[in-house]
Each structure stands twice: as structure tokens, then as C-alpha cells.
Amino acid sequence: MPTNFTVVPVEDGTSSPDYDGRISAEDNKSSGLPGPYSGDETRGEDSPFISDRDWSSDRKNMALFEEEMDSTPMVSSLLNKLANYTNLTQGVADHEEAESEDGIKRVTVKGPQMGTFIGVYLPCVQSILGVILFLRLTWIVGTAGIMGSFAMVFMCCACTLLTAISMSAIATNGMVPAGGSYYMISRALGPEFGGAVGLCFYLGTTFAGSLYILGTIEIFLMYIMPNAEVFETREHNMRLYGTCCLASMVLVVFVGVKYVNKLALVFLSCVILSIMAIYAGVIRTAIQPPDVQICMLGDRLLGNQNFKCVKTEVIDNITYPTKLRELFCDGPFLNATCDEYFIQNNVTEMKGIPGLLSGVISHNLWGNYGPFGSLVEMRQQSEALQDYSNVNRPYVLNDITTYFTLMVGIFFPSVTGIMAGSNRSGDLRDPQRSIPTGTILAIITTSITYMSFVVLFGACIEGVLLRDKFGYSVNRIPVLGILAWPSPWIIVIGSFFSCCGAGLQSLTGAPRLLQAIAHDGIVPFLQVFGHSKFNGEPTWALLLTAVICEIGVLIASIDAVAPILSMFFLMCYLFVNLACAIQTLLGTPNWRPRFKFYHWSLSFLGMSLCLALMFVSSWYHALIAVVIAGCIYKYIEYRGAEKEWGDGIRGLSLNAARYALLKLEEAPPHTKNWRPQLLVLLSLDSDLAVKHPRLLSFTSQLKAGKGLTIICSVLQGTYMLRGTEAKRAERSMKTSMAVEKTKGFCHVVVCSNLRDGFSNLIQSAGLGGMKHNTVLIAWPNNWRQAEDTLTWKNFIETVRETTAAHQALLVAKNIDHFPSNAERLAEGTIDVWWIVHDGGLLMLLPFLLRQHKVWKKCKMRIFTVAHLDDNSIQMKNDLQVFLYQLRLDAEVEVVEMHERDISAFTYEKTLVMEQRCLLLKQMQLSRTEREREGHVFHQRGTKTPARHRERNSPASDQVHMTWTKDKLATERNRLREASAGVKDLFSMKPEWENLNQSNVRRMHTAVKLNEAVVNKSQGAHLVLLNMPGPPKNKDGDENYMEFLEVLMEGLDQVLLVRGGGREVITIYS
């Protein structure tokens, strides 16, 4: 009964609320409290509770926690909200609000009232006991035998029982809203598995509707109105009447599901009455077996076509041929030629139902299978049987080829329907208690029913009558109808309405399941099916369901539709068991089901049994179902919306990653497993955008999606002040990575200075054994013109720290000129200048680049340098052999560089370099003195707050100083004279003997090597060079930058490579 709640103002004694129950705006403004929660926000699934945030009254007594109250509730407020929460009926509006005349809002809440028996047990029993029981179980028992049928029923019921145990654990681990099994699987295994299995379950439910409709029409045409057939073939009649029945059912569901719910009790009553009638008939056979005679010709069963079961009859002492004889002979005469089997065997009548105590059970223990068109006989003949399907004889024939695995596929739909209780969790008073209890009791009840029926049918009915699928031998009366008491019409009418009700339930549930999948947004093309009309009916989903259901109806055979239905349900049950097993094995903290009688081994056994039944019943149907689910999985993974539901697959990935990381820690990687695990150090502009996006392109080309890639950058400052900017920078980097198709991880750190930030990243990036072994950075272009020397100093420190960390270093010059991922380089070369052995990294990098489609057409050339004492011919041969052993295709060339006298050009460049270094040191020293002088003057002449003094400290980028006009003019003249002195150096002849001879030799090497590289590789798409190490003495840092600049002068796209001190390529397999 609905309960009315009245929302009235409550005074707390400290502030008087206005007439509408809210604190006045002036009180809010003076107290600084935010306004009350509006309730308009959508509560997501990630919210642990469903409650409003209005706990401002707690602030005065809990002032110590007032800052936390904006984001976390007090316990008293939380418990109050939870106490008022109600889980309402699904598909119905949660609250019906009405305004009374006095302006007070009244909320009507309709709480769930159903218990275990009404809400779970009876719906499950009604869903499980259905069309297969009434139309096929006797035929299955007669064909497979009591032993085979019992084993079949036991396997199928054990599968559903184990699945129910797993489902009970999942269903009691929190609320299960609309979607039922789809919701359980998707939230336990993730959107990909959930969407794939959810759609398979939807298809299974839809084809179940087809099965029930075909069962309804079979009962109607075979037993109720046989004269209503329009076509000669049974299949065409099934298609015609099935389509009409489907249209009428869709119309009923479209008008309103409430009519279906009102008829549910009627349909359930039909099932129960039919079951009771069967048991009553079995008991009657023990007392007085029914007088049901079947006609046999030898061992062969004859269909009753209104003839007497004798060959001849005597009337007035005259023998006349019967109608039966005419069917087996050429004419209506006693001397007509007759069928040989008809002549050799007698025609006899025998009881079709000899009774429970007759001992017929011994004859029905084992199976009696036969091919299509074979005769229904007492015993299977050893010789090959003739095909009698086109012979005009009154034999009862097998309409399909029968074997045990087919029987399993046909029977399994009779044990489905165990999800009926979990799908109604919103209608239950206590779903966490009702779902396990009701579902398991329903399965036990129906399993006992099926097993008892298998034994009782085999003990009461002759085997040939059991194998008469459509009751041809007993005037087209169902075999169960003959057994039932008091009338066969109880079974006929009961099974008819049972199939009608089950079909309506399927057409009601399937569209809502599709609507739940569409609402989650994980399958983009299903978005349209999430819409519904004004009363909540999913119209478009219902239309799609009707179309798919029509496909099943056009198959026009229960025996053909049942295995398809079995595949989809078995796949759904398989993943329910998998979900429970994974959650149990992972030991997720949120895995706390109230149902305690489960174990991962039971779930694993149920999963294995489902998989076995899939391939046992029909391996090709199983493959089709797996392919459909796999395609849906890959589609959702590729195009579906990203969802984070805390699923078990993600937890499994975390556990697998942890295990793999621990294994990687046990030993360093072997040379054969070495690949560049990149740490890419990016620079960001003032807008926190990536300065060199082509660095990301080159990363993806070098990695080709393999291995580890960490994209990092550093912001200068403190995390408290720039934490938000760091998050925004990460989002910007992720966007750039997506555009450049770079797969990896990105991270932005905030540090007091860039040098320490890069140092920390080089030392600590990665986790455990999954750490980077190679650092990729861009060459600092225009470092000579930069006013701040920190750019190139940080670069050199990065080189030193990667060397100290035994990590490889890649430096890309003119990275903005490198090809993008969309480009396709035509015929060209990647030139490798192998000066010193660095572990083979120089030769490995071009091989990796050529795996990418951008560099695929480029050829690899390797140049090495020969000195005066080297045999260049032998070097070339040795290098070719070495490359052959390394399985690398490359052209080899040896460049001879003889020792020559150092040229004047080299001395000139060395002199300019040293003079420039000296000048810059003087200018830096002068600048430092000016900053110090201005800082002292500022401290003495002004009195500023401490915070202002910190902002104007020498460590800051901006220094505010007070200069006089004369002092400023003197400083400008001094700088102008210094610049003029630099210009004069180019025209004067230096004193060469005063130069540092080490610098002269290094410059000589850089100049000569640059000449050779430019001469050979100026037109190459990419040039790889050994990168010399930095000087140990930091005074020569700028000279080192000059050497590298000279080395790369005249080249466009250059990659400097410095090995990490270990071999990275091997000739062994």
C-alpha cells in the first residue's frame, strides 16, 4: 500500500528557516555556507551511497571538521539518508510527487512487497517448466533411453545449479538493477565481456520467444485444430501461423506489459495443473492402466489412420481385406501382391501404456537412435534400413537424425529460466535473501521433476510410443495427454497457454534487456534502442526483437531452434561462473556477498560444464556463438564507450601485472629480449601544449606499439601551486599522444627546477623491472642565441645522468622536420655512421624504424671509418659477414680518414669557440654582480613585506632594480664594445699556440667527420651518429655543445645515439 510522506520545515533552534523550509539567503551569506543540495545531479554507479548532501546543521557542533563537510557527510546524516532509501520497482517512476493546496510537498513512495515464494520461486518454476517438457521429453526418453536421458538431465541441471550458486553470490554482492544477468556480467567482467554476453543473452531470450511461439503453433495445429492447415507441408503452416501469433503477441506487449503481468498467474496455474495431471496419471497406471492400444506390424509402429489393426476380417464367414491391407498391397483383393514385410509379419495390438508395474522399464533403459526417415521400431535393426519417407505406408518415421548430443541441445532450453528471479530484484522485499533461496529451490524442484519424469515415463510407456513424437499412432494425441489424468485436454490446453505465456514473457523481457544495454552506451549503434515511449515501453527495442524472433519462427522447427537457444544461454551461464570465479580468486575488497555457500572451484566446474555442453550439443553452433560474441567484444573494445565499473578483468590485469613485475625483478632481461623502453622528455610551451609533437610521432615509429613508452615533462614551481596545471598538462599530452598514435603512459612532475625534475624522472620513472632503458630528447636548437644558459646546461646534465644510470640516449636534431605518421617516405636511405661500438644500438634502431610503414621503403646503409693502419677491404668484408649473422640487410661502406695536419679552419673555429666561452663567462659574471648590487640596494632602500622580498629574490626570474641614467649608459657602452670585440676576432689571425690543444684535436675530429658525413649522407632521410660523451670537467660544457654542433652542421635530420653500456643485439637465435 502506498505510503505518504510529508516534507515539513524543521527548526534547529539556532536559525529560523523561511516559510519554504530553507535557510534564508542572508543567513547563508553571513555564515558562508553553501546552499542546500538540489538533487538534480545524476547519481553515478561509482557513488557508494545514494544520499543527498545536506548536513549544514552539523557544522556548529563539529567545527573541527567543517572543511571536510563540503565533500564528506557526517555519520548521523549518512545513516539518516540510508534509512530513508527504498529500492523500487524497475521500469516505474520512483516517486510520484503531488502538491497540496497548502503548498506542502507530499511524496508517495510505493515499496516492494514480494517475497521469496511469489517473487523468485514461482517465476523461476514457470520459466523452467515449458515447451520442451510437454512436447519433447517423452520423445527424448524413448530415443535416448532412461540412462541416457537421466545423464542428460543431470548434466543440464547440475550446470544450472552451479550457475545459480555463482549468480547468487554476484546478486547478493550489492544491488542488481535493470538488466539482470547482463548487469551482473558487465559489472563483474567489464563492458566488453558484458556487452558481448549481454547481447548473446538478448539473442537467446529472443530465440526463446521463437521457440515458445513454435510450440504454441505446433500444439494448435497438431492437437487442437488439425483441420486448420492451409499448406500441405507442416513447415509452411508453422511459418504462417507463427508469424500471425508473433504479430498478435507483439501487439499485446506494445499496448502494455501490465496485461501480460495480469495473465502471468493464469499461465502459471496451467503449468502446475498439467504437472499434477501427469503425476496423477502415473499413479493411475499402477492401479488401472489406461486402455490405449497401438498397432504394430512385426516390430514396426503403425500410424492410426482410421483402420482396423488386422490384415483381414471375416464377415458372414467371408474373408475381406481391410483398409490396412490395401495400404500394403497393390489392390483391394486377397490375391493382390503385397509388401514382403507385411506378408512375413503379423499385425498385433499392444498396450501403449502398460503401467508402472508392468516391467517395461527394462526395455527402455538404453537408447534407440536412428537416421532421418528411419522407422520407429521395437528394436533397432542391425541391417541398413530403407528410406521410407517417400513410400505410401502407414509407418511412423523419424523426422530427424537422432543422436545423444542432439538430444542435449534440444533438452537444455527446458532448464533455462533461472534468471527470472534476479531480473526482478527491484520488486523484492529482500533480494539478497530471496534470490539465492528462491532460485536454488526452484532448480532443485524442477530437477527432481525432470528426473522423476524420465524414470516414470520409461517405466509406464512403451518405447515405440515414446518415440512417436507427434502421437500419430494414437490419433494425434500427445503422449503426455494419454498418460495424464483425468483428460488429455488438460495437457493440451495447459501446454498451449504455458507456451503462450512464456512467449509473452520473452517478448517482454528481451526488449528491456536491449534497452539496458543501450542505456549503458557501450555499443554506439544501439543508442536508438534505448528510447522508449511515454509509458516506458522500449518501442524500438520491441520492433528489433520482433524482427529477430521472426527469423526463428521462419525456421519452423522446435528441434532446429532449440540448439541455437542453448548456445546463447550456455555462453551467458559460462560467463556468470567466470565472473564469480575471478572475483573470488582475486579477493577484491568489494567482493562481500551475503550468500556464503559458494567457492571458486564450483564456479570453475560450472564454467567447464557449460563449455563442454556447448560443444557437445552442437560444435558448429558453439563456434558461431563464440564468433558472434568475439566480434561484439572487439567492436566494443574498438568503438565502445570507455567505462570504469571496477570490473574483475581490470582486477585480473592488475594481479597479472603485479606478478609479471615481480618476475621481471628476478633477473635482468637477456640480450635477445632487449628492446628500447623509452622515456621521452618533452618540453611544454606557455599554454602547456607540446612543443615538439613530432617527437611523439618518432616514438610511435620507433616502437611500433611494442614495449614500454613513458612520456614525461617537468613544470617549474611547487606542486601546491601548480598541481592543477600539471593535471591540465597531462591531459594536453594525452591528447597529443592520441593524435600522434603513441601508446604509452604520460606523467608531469612539478619540481623547484627543471634539472632536478629531469633527474628525478631518469632515476625513478617506471616500476620494478618495467623501467625505461633509453631516454629520448630533442636537441636544443638555437642554444647559442638563448639568453638563459640553463637550456644547454640542463641538456648536458641529462646526458651525464643517463650515462651514470647506464641508460641509452637518443637526441633528435630538427625533430620538427621528421616525418609524421601519415607520411610514406619514398625510396631513400637511413644512414648509420658506426664510429665506436655502443652495444649494437646504432644498427638495431634502423631495423626497428623500418618495421613501421613510414620508413618501410627506406634502405639501410652502414658507414664505418678506417684509419691509416686499417685494411679497409678486410673491414668491409668483416662487417658484411657480421651483418649477415645479425640478419640485417644493409649496404656497407668504409670511409678512409687519413691523419692530416690540422687545418687553419679548425684553429679558427677553436679560437672563436674559446673566445666566445670567455666572453660569455664575463658577461655572466657581470650580470651576477649587477643582480647582487641591485638586490643589496633594494634591501637597504626599501622595506617590503617578507613575501614581497621572496618574490624579488635573486633566484627569481625577474629582478627589480633602481638604475641611474649615467650608470645605464655606461653599461650599454661596455656591452657594445664587447660585442665589437667578438666581431673583430673573425678578421684577426689568432695566436694558435695559446689554444687548448685538446679542444683543437676535438674540433679537428668534429670537422673532418662532419665533412665525410655531409659528403656521403646529406641526402639521407635520417642520419644516425655515435654521440661522444660529455667532458668530466664541467668547465668544458659549452665546448662540448660546440663540438656536437659542428659534428651535425649541414645535416637536416640527425639522431645522436649513445649506448647504455650493454649489448643489445646478438647473432644467436
From TrEMBL:
<feature type="transmembrane region" description="Helical">
    <location>
        <begin position="539"/>
        <end position="558"/>
    </location>
</feature>
<feature type="region of interest" description="Disordered">
    <location>
        <begin position="930"/>
        <end position="958"/>
    </location>
</feature>
<feature type="region of interest" description="Disordered">
    <location>
        <begin position="1"/>
        <end position="52"/>
    </location>
</feature>
<feature type="compositionally biased region" description="Basic residues">
    <location>
        <begin position="937"/>
        <end position="950"/>
    </location>
</feature>
<keyword id="KW-0769">Symport</keyword>
<feature type="transmembrane region" description="Helical">
    <location>
        <begin position="263"/>
        <end position="283"/>
    </location>
</feature>
<keyword id="KW-1003">Cell membrane</keyword>
<feature type="transmembrane region" description="Helical">
    <location>
        <begin position="238"/>
        <end position="257"/>
    </location>
</feature>
<dbReference type="GO" id="GO:0007268">
    <property type="term" value="P:chemical synaptic transmission"/>
</dbReference>
<dbReference type="GO" id="GO:0006884">
    <property type="term" value="P:cell volume homeostasis"/>
</dbReference>
<dbReference type="GO" id="GO:0015379">
    <property type="term" value="F:potassium:chloride symporter activity"/>
</dbReference>
<dbReference type="GO" id="GO:1990573">
    <property type="term" value="P:potassium ion import across plasma membrane"/>
</dbReference>
<feature type="domain" description="Amino acid permease/ SLC12A">
    <location>
        <begin position="120"/>
        <end position="283"/>
    </location>
</feature>
<dbReference type="InterPro" id="IPR004841">
    <property type="entry name" value="AA-permease/SLC12A_dom"/>
</dbReference>
<dbReference type="GO" id="GO:0055075">
    <property type="term" value="P:potassium ion homeostasis"/>
</dbReference>
<dbReference type="GO" id="GO:0005886">
    <property type="term" value="C:plasma membrane"/>
</dbReference>
<keyword id="KW-0406">Ion transport</keyword>
<dbReference type="InterPro" id="IPR004842">
    <property type="entry name" value="SLC12A_fam"/>
</dbReference>
<keyword id="KW-0472">Membrane</keyword>
<keyword id="KW-0597">Phosphoprotein</keyword>
<keyword id="KW-0630">Potassium</keyword>
<feature type="compositionally biased region" description="Basic and acidic residues">
    <location>
        <begin position="40"/>
        <end position="52"/>
    </location>
</feature>
<keyword id="KW-1133">Transmembrane helix</keyword>
<dbReference type="InterPro" id="IPR018491">
    <property type="entry name" value="SLC12_C"/>
</dbReference>
<keyword id="KW-0868">Chloride</keyword>
<dbReference type="Pfam" id="PF03522">
    <property type="entry name" value="SLC12"/>
</dbReference>
<feature type="transmembrane region" description="Helical">
    <location>
        <begin position="151"/>
        <end position="176"/>
    </location>
</feature>
<feature type="transmembrane region" description="Helical">
    <location>
        <begin position="400"/>
        <end position="420"/>
    </location>
</feature>
<feature type="transmembrane region" description="Helical">
    <location>
        <begin position="196"/>
        <end position="226"/>
    </location>
</feature>
<comment type="similarity">
    <text>Belongs to the SLC12A transporter family. K/Cl co-transporter subfamily.</text>
</comment>
<keyword id="KW-0325">Glycoprotein</keyword>
<dbReference type="InterPro" id="IPR000076">
    <property type="entry name" value="KCL_cotranspt"/>
</dbReference>
<feature type="transmembrane region" description="Helical">
    <location>
        <begin position="477"/>
        <end position="504"/>
    </location>
</feature>
<feature type="domain" description="SLC12A transporter C-terminal">
    <location>
        <begin position="693"/>
        <end position="810"/>
    </location>
</feature>
<feature type="transmembrane region" description="Helical">
    <location>
        <begin position="565"/>
        <end position="586"/>
    </location>
</feature>
<feature type="transmembrane region" description="Helical">
    <location>
        <begin position="118"/>
        <end position="139"/>
    </location>
</feature>
<keyword id="KW-0813">Transport</keyword>
<protein>
    <recommendedName>
        <fullName>Solute carrier family 12 member 7a</fullName>
    </recommendedName>
</protein>
<dbReference type="GO" id="GO:0055064">
    <property type="term" value="P:chloride ion homeostasis"/>
</dbReference>
<keyword id="KW-0812">Transmembrane</keyword>
<keyword id="KW-0633">Potassium transport</keyword>
<feature type="domain" description="SLC12A transporter C-terminal">
    <location>
        <begin position="811"/>
        <end position="1069"/>
    </location>
</feature>
